[in-house]
Amino acid sequence: MTKQRYFFLILILGSLTALAPFSIDMYLPGFPAIARSLHTTTEKVALSLSTFFIGISAGQLLYGPLLDKFGRKKPLYFGLTVYIIASVGCYFSANIEQLIGLRFIQAVGSCAASVAAMAMVRDMFPLKDNAKVFALLILVLGASPMIAPTAGGYITDAFGWHAIFIVLTIMGILIFFAVAFGLNDQYKPDAGISLKPGPIITSFAAVIKNPQFYTYAVCGGIGFSCLFVYVSASPLVFMEVFKVSSKAYGWIFAGLSVGFIGASQVNSLLVKHFKSERIVMVAVPAMVIISALFLMGAWQNVLGLAGSLVMIFGVLSCVGILSPNTSALALAPFEKNAGTASALLGAFQMCIGSAVSVGVSLFPGQSAVPMAAIMLVSAGLSLVVLFLGKGNIKQKTTSKQGQMVAH
Q: Where is the Major facilitator superfamily (MFS) profile domain (predicted)?
């Protein structure tokens, strides 16, 4: 594979991965404008974010079997088409209920992109390079929190919040054509895969029973939820509590994303010298410690805006290192049914993200304490899952070795 081809593959796969996050981040600065326009509250507008997460969670499981049965591109075309139509519908939303419903449909369409991208990484690249490739995808993914909120703030101020969904529609169309002309489907469709509920459930169960998958999928999913906590709570914390403008919020959001992106690229260097398992064992405890410091500082009201930014930057940096390694480790045991495994991996992340985003919305936005508390709970649970799960992985490996000796 030439360097130019490698670059374009990463760019297209990264764009697919970034579609859903971009759809989230771009409209965040428009929350107050949407609330005024649709005669509702900012908290009610935040429900359109929660339904987006729920739509992604449900859609992941839909596309997994389709990607394995029909190949990667046909289900991807379907999902992108749904996304484009729903984005146009969001533009014409006349009330908050319509927007909430259409955001759910938009999410179901967008998640085809992320599931297909993860499966294609497993298809196109050697297993030993997967963690590095995932880190590069995060670099492209990082353009979302750097560009989307800032652009969303300026677009909202200049043209109104409706224009954001025109931009997202154009993005969906461009990605559709990039997939059509820039990607080759290297996976051979498996016509033997059944789309009946029974076999699908059996296939999902086979993936879930693998100790390496469920350990790193759940550990990484819970840890990754710290990013969702930040995304869900940041409009209230920064614009309501710290009283920053929508434009300033966009710049803050972009600046904090440097922690997430930069850490993922540091990870590309780390995996050359350390195994992913070892990196994860350091990243999760570090996230627990920083989250605990954040909660204590927010509780005592001693951090202010600057201190809160430093703590959030630290947590997001840990997530940036954790995510590519847990994704690579979770998918490593699978080749034939990588689409199903990718769907479950994404579903774990988004389902947990949906739960925490709803949880954040239940607390009044009067301080950063709810954000910090939920981050600490997420990081702590991730650590518990990691230690418990690693014991099961070790037992299965030892058992396999014993069977080999016996034979």
A: 9-390
This prediction has a pTM of 0.68
Render pLDDT for 147-191 as a digit per residue (tens, 0 to 9).
Answer: 787 788 889 888 999 999 999 999 999 999 999 888 876 667 666
CA 122 to chain centre: 18
Query: The tokens 């540091």 sit on which residue?
Result: 266
Q: Quick check: 139 and 261 in contact, CB under 8 A?
A: yes
Helix (H, G, I), strand (E, B) or coil at 271: coil
Distance CA 42, CA 306 (A): 24
| CA angle, residues 14, 328, 254, in degrees to nearest 5 | 40
**Is 324:131 a contact under the CB 8 Å cutoff?**
yes
Q: Alpha-carbon distance 207 to 195, whole Å?
A: 16
Angle at 312 between CA 308 and CA 318, to 5 degrees: 155
Tens digits of residue pLDDT in 225-251: 888 888 778 877 888 788 888 778 878
Helix 304-331 to helix 276-299 angle, to the nearest 10 degrees?
150
**Helices and strands (H and E) in the chain: how many:** 15, 0
CA–CA gap between residue 352 and residue 346 (Å, rounded) = 10
Q: What's 335's DSSP letter?
A: S
What CA–CA distance (Å, rounded) separates 253 from 241?
Answer: 15
Are the C-beta atoms of residues 219 and 382 closer than 8 Å to each other? yes
- Residue-range domain boundaries for the chain: 8-181+196-401
Separation of alpha carbons 116 and 83, rounded Å: 15
The second-level CATH assignment, the architecture, of 8-181+196-401 is Up-down Bundle (1.20)
